Every structure is written in structure tokens, then in C-alpha cells.
Known about the structure:
Arc Repressor Mutant, subunit A; three-stranded antiparallel β-sheet; mainly alpha; 3 strands
Amino acid sequence: MPSRLIVSRELAELFKLLAHPDRLRLVEELRSGEQDVGSIASALMLPATRISQHLALLKAVRLVEERRAGRTHFYRLVHPQMAGWILEALPFIDIRNRLENAAHIDDARARWSTVPPEIST
Length: 121
């Protein structure tokens, strides 16, 4: 019984960390592989400082890893399959919001369903 409590708490902490739209989009963006902060910021249309803050949180809990090349910092998901969890959650919001947000959900599903060559099995 205590192990289930420990695991439940750990999962709750992970879900809290991912419970931010920018961080979900960031995880999805890193699905295709390693990227630098500027590229991520450009793709997500967010300020680089904001991306850096989110990456620092994800790095602190070892969800992303950093590699430096000179002054450039590159980030990648430690477990790229994490991006698949986001895709697998779409049916839950699909059911709740089908009439209101059908186009948005379909667009996200199409974009996120494309498996990058690096992680296809």
C-alpha cells in the first residue's frame, strides 16, 4: 500500500509540472529531437526567456537533457515517448470538446501524430 501512495504522489508531481500549455507544447516540439532555445522559441512563438524558464524546470526533474556547443544550449527529451502521452490524451479532450474545438483537436492530432524518423519503431 505505501508504494502505491509514493507512486501516486510522484505521478501527481509530474502531472503538475506538465500542466502548463507552454510546457506541453515544448514537450511536443522536442518530440522531433534536439533543438536550441531560439529554434524552440521561434516554433512556439514565445520569448526565448520564457522557453528557458520552462526548460530549466523540465531539466531540474530530468525530463530534458542539455548539451552545450559553445554559447548555444541544445535540449532534448530524456524519454521521447513522453510526447506520445500527449497524443494519447487527445481522446479525453476530444470527447469533452468535440463540438466547440473539433478543428483545433484534429489539427493537433494530425501534427502530433507524425512520428519523427529518429524515434519510429
